[in-house]
Design a protein that fits this description.
five-stranded mixed sheet; transferase; FabH; alpha/beta; 2 domains; about 25% strand; Peroxisomal Thiolase, Chain A, domain 1
Length: about 325
């Protein structure tokens, strides 16, 4: 592509309230050691009452715009599985609160793969000449959809938001998104879902069932699918852009479980130490996961200008996707 989408700014935020593993010990008959050894998570951040996904998205968006030195964009794409309302979409409200009046704005719903899907969508609009600058945000208040009595999900997720600014530029510029690989398999949608509240349940004429309004996940099956699909997608992407596996400096996978990150690294033949790990501090933040990990790695020196970066995510749908770029010289906002 002579007209590429180039990452020029990044911002991230998590709510101030930290929740350590000990908070779940008595209520869910678990322990800090049990959670750490099985997931790698030490703590997560959760919103306070009255704070929503849009609040997180606005803050992360402001920081990304500041990082890029911009106050205007042509489009806002928000990846989230926890919109403020079932409708309307949350992105227009976020755009308005950022002072981006009348720009197009829409949500992308691909759960934990949402940020990669949003990146691909935004890059496509730039490549097609529809936009020159796009703000891409991944934001979640995931704690609001978790059953507090379900040990299989309550301990895993946290809240937060990450955002990047993409701008039109040459394909050989640092930060240019070099390629994507996307996929889905709807035959296994029941592995990750909220079964109640949608048109399928409502069309039966029954009122929404509170017991079916919580997020559900079949953890064992999801683990295997996540590792396999992310590895396959990453290999396909690297082949497409002609990057040998050993040339990848950093692998930024969806931050769900450290064992998944290690499994993907092993499957693609990449040393485990090249996988960025941020979930120990924030848990699984769904669509916010990858931009939060990117911002953290850049801020702490794990990610340096010139590093070859492969990203991959997997989530409900089932949906998965990967993207790659050479990391630019940007300072997280």
């Amino acid at each position: 592509m002579s007209r590429a989408a180039v990452l020029t700014g990044i911002g991230a935020m998590v709510p101030p309230r930290e929740v350590g593993n000990d908070a779940f010990a008595e209520r869910l008959a678990t322990s800090d050691e049990w959670i750490r050894t099985r997931t790698g998570i030490r703590k997560r951040h959760m919103v306070d009452p009255g704070t929503s996904t849009s609040d997180l998205a606005v803050e992360a968006g402001q920081r990304a715009l500041k990082s890029a030195g911009r106050d205007q964009v042509d489009l806002v794409v928000l990846a989230t599985a926890t919109p403020d309302y079932p409708l309307p979409g949350t992105a227009p409200d976020v755009a308005s609160r950022l002072g981006l009046d009348h720009v197009p704005a829409f949500d992308v719903a691909a759960v934990c793969a949402g940020f990669v899907y949003a990146l691909a969508t935004a890059a496509g609009t730039i490549g097609a000449g529809l936009t020159d600058r796009v703000l891409v945000i991944g934001a979640e208040a995931f704690s609001t959809i978790l059953d507090p009595t379900d040990r299989g999900t309550a301990i895993l997720f946290g809240d937060g938001a990450g955002a990047v600014v993409l701008e039109r530029g040459p394909a050989d510029a640092p930060g240019a998104l070099l390629g994507f690989d996307l996929g889905s398999d709807g035959s296994m949608a029941d592995l990750i879902m909220i079964p109640g509240g949608g048109s399928r349940q409502r069309s039966g004429g029954a009122p929404p069932d509170a017991d079916r309004a919580w997020f559900t996940m079949q953890g064992r099956e999801v683990f295997g699918q996540a590792a396999t699909r992310m590895a396959e997608s990453t290999r396909t992407l690297l082949k497409t852009i002609d990057w040998p596996v050993e040339s990848v400096d950093r692998f930024v996978g969806h931050q769900a479980n450290v064992r998944i990150l290690h499994a993907v690294s092993d499957l693609i033949g990449l040393p485990r130490e090249r996988a960025v790990v941020h979930l120990d501090q924030v848990g699984n933040t769904s669509a916010a996961s990858i931009p939060l990990a990117l911002a953290h790695a850049a801020a702490t020196g794990q990610l340096l200008p010139g590093h070859r970066v492969a990203m991959s995510a997997f989530g409900g749908g089932l949906a998965w996707g990967s993207a790659a770029l050479v990391w630019p010289d940007v300072v997280p906002g």
